[in-house]
Fold this protein.
Amino acid sequence: MSITPQASTSNQGEVSLVRTTRVTTLTVSEHEHTIITDNSDNQRHEAFDLSKSKKIKSSTTLISNSSDPTIMSSNSNSTNLLETMKHTNEEMNYNGNSENNDSQATQQTSTSSTKTFEIDEGLYSRQLYVMGKEAMHQLASAHVLISGMRGLGVEIAKNIILCGAKSVIVHDCGNVDFRDLSSQCYFTESNIGQNRAKVANKHLFELNSYVNVTFFSTIIDETFLKKNKVNVFILTDANLDDQIKIGDYCHQHGIKFINANTKGLFGQIFCDFGLNFEVLDTNGEHPLTQIVTEISHDEVGVVFTPTHTRHGFEDGSYVTFHGVKGMTEVNDREFKISVTSPFTFTIGDTRCFGSYESGGTVTEVKKSEIVHFKSFSESLKDPEMLVCDFSKMSMPANLHLAFQALSYFEKQYNALPKPWDNADADKFYEIVEKLKREQVLTDELNKHWIKLFAKTCTGDLCPMQAIIGGIAAQEAMKAVTGKFMPIRQFFYFDAIECLPENIFQLSNETTTESNIIPKLPTKLSRYYSQEIVFGEDFQEKLGKSKYFVVGSGAIGCEMLKNFAMMGIGCLKHGHVYVADMDSIEKSNLNRQFLFRSWDIGKMKSIVAAEVVKAMNPNMNVSAYVDGVLPETEHIYDDHFFERLDGVVNALDNVKARQYIDQRCVYYQKPLIDSGTLGTKASVQVIVPFPTESYSSANDPPDLSVAMCTLRHFPNLIEHTIEWARDNFSGLFTIPPQQAEDFLRGPKEFAERTTKNHSEYDKTEIIENIKRILGEERPKNFTNCIKWSRNLFEQQFHNTITQLLYNFPYDHITSKGERFWSENKRCPHVLNFDVNNELHLDFIVAASNLLAHMYYIPQIRDRKLIAEEVAKIYVPEFKPKADVIIHENDEQLRADLKRQKNTSAICKNSQCKNDVEVKQLLSRLLNYDDILDIKIQSHEFEKDDDRNFHMDYIVATANLRAENYEIQKTDRSKIKRIAGNIIPAIATTTAMVTGLVCLEVYKFVQHHKKIESYRNAFVNLHFTLWNRFEVKGDMTLEEFIEYFKHEHKLVPNMVSAGMSVIYCPHFIRQTSIAQDMKRKISELFEMVTKTKIPANVRCLTLVMLCTDLEGNDVKDVPYIKYIFR
């Protein structure tokens, strides 16, 4: 079916909104995984030989990435293997091209770790705000090898290439078959029988011209790894033996190792980054900065911060001070702090310092952390696993055994378990039971989960691979940059809720199995691997579904790709509609992977629809280029919405989401909303009737800055940046727009201005026009320089002089308090210095902006501008006694109210105000040449480094910061804040769309139980990898006191699995008093009425708690309670 360009939605792509509502929250943290190759047959093709011996023996080879008995590679026997290895080593001496095996693996040139790479900020602009420049340089020197080019492998490769590694080698010895088509977006039926790595490479190398993408389709040995300087090895679709061999080899040779696998609705990741891996940024958050209001002069110096907001520092963290007066010794020194309250902390003995007078900020200092990783084989025996779904606490332990058991099953029976075969599932469970007896895992086996794993493990699902692929790619970036805390070391994920509810009724760990099974596929098709899990009937439902994707930015592109692989809208009567009103820009290419450089300027929705149509020619897809807005309801009308089965948001602003939500509520259509913010992501599922709508829950309002703070009393760099952004609009955007409006029709403008009292301050508008068109209109660039020099004087000298005239340094308020204290920093004037680079930056930017407004040729020669500005005389400023400066917003609002009342009186009497406006306009019309003036406004554009927009805002923000002794900052931070840039990265986008598509599976099946749906909040920083470890069996009383003393936490509920050990609100006080003297292990046995097995030495506890002030504490890590 043809693509029909019609319309599109408002802002789309990645989203800054991060929300969760009831249902279940997914918090991804440190986890562990192990997996097996997806072989449904007994034949293997050698893919790795990491033997140190020069003579290659077949018994030393490691992995098979080919699983098809019908596909024979050149290394299918030991003789050919030796011959192939000989050719392979010879090829490495050339450029990696091989006539014999058609592989390409380019030898990398030696690169010094100190070499600086030029980062294309236009391409990576959004990612830079996630990773930072230093991490991007590290990433740009990384050499990554990805083995296995089925759906999961290509997802990982796509993400890493988009993010900008130096080189990526994709490796696979096997050929494309029908089973790959359900999840590998670059394979089509015409590729069947061709090498997976070669086919994938043709598409992957187009993603990023800065990344050297090559492929390899034969054996990889130690020589290969060394010559290609591989520092990250990502293994997918491998069996357990190969995982152990490669994992241990990488551990011994300092290669970062990631093992990733998906089996049906189950996924696994394992990470090993070496014995001493340095994490440079443990949480990915910007360092906290707070204002200092007082520092005590004492043996234990106490630092006070404003009481209107919590300082947010953690006990034991490090801080540094800047701009403190009096006690200057603390400036630019690091202090380890002890938090004493939400508004105070201590820094040690301050008696040898001077006495605190005023001012200063305190900023958090990020400290690196050394993390120790075990090898894969060691971790198998002693795994660390974290629960990511608290409704299935023991799922990770069950999956840890199941993934291992899959390889044992294959060895024993020469095949993987047959889909939905009870006999094979029973045999598989027996193997898992045996493994459990051999390994020390405390969690009980869930027979139904294990059997479900066996029945669906041969399936291949695109959404699962998007999730695991996104996380694994992010881990690879952590491995080479040290940015963010890595997984330690296994992560397991499942989505069994996606199965039909008549097969598995979910009830925590008491899941019951139905006798009904899906209708298994009767023929080979591109959806075969999905039909193994859900059945042919379900696939038909997907094909006939009609879904609306609102937005085709980063999230929209990934969503459309997933839909194409899943087969949504790919049968008669099925359809996918995509809407986006934006065109493609360069900065989109880093995340919106359906677009290429030659697409820049084209409409996103049209290009996206064309590309996914090529991925799956059966997909019925229509592209719209009109926004989904109240103004376009004639396009997205009753007929449009009533035929839909569901809507998926891919938007980047709350207002657009709320409108879509209103339409879905009106038409009673299910909606899934998702968004990203750097490495954070959210998914919200809205089901008509059972759940609340999107708009029912509101996010906390953004903390706005008081107007007086911005105008006269800034104390943080954020304040000066916001002021600079407003200042830019007030000079170069709004006034010239008003002048343009006037020039287009003076009389009509006069009439509008006299009527629009609520929108215009008429006097200010007229003064703007007089200034723009007459008084300040430059004739040449020299006039522009003079105007800029006077502007500098006005903004950074005269206004400060007037402020200090009204409120001198020693000014005392009517309450007898110092005026310049607390949040008010006393400023000082800036005297212009032509030799000061920042001063000249301002003059150059302002002069060129003004020149551009009047179509005067711009001059970028700094030396010439410096010579001219040095000649300009600026008269001395004398402060005026009648100037009123409001001390706070209350005074400002009262004054504005008085002005409004005065305007209302004038309006009611039709008095002189209207006459004055018309008279002023008449005066303007008397200028002979006024109507011949050409003028243009500046619409702020942050991404063009030659338009002087950011140059002006950077200079202005930092000059104002200098006025108020606020620490200046760099261009990158100013651009992010002034441009309201949403940090974004491809890994998070890919992962969140996988979570969305899991919910689509449930929508299509019309799941009734609300417990089946999952809202999600995910943070790929993995800040919750940490946990509490409590050693020794404590009494409940000792346990509570321990957390109060050590962690400043007050437990108010403690549970183990589904059993509540402590909850004072629901237990009689007499019982609590007795329980306080009992050991935790004893309480566990009492509550569960079970004896703890002798081989179990620890319990997993979950705690709800408050801080010492009684405030609820969110995201409390779980507790590993080691009682033996």
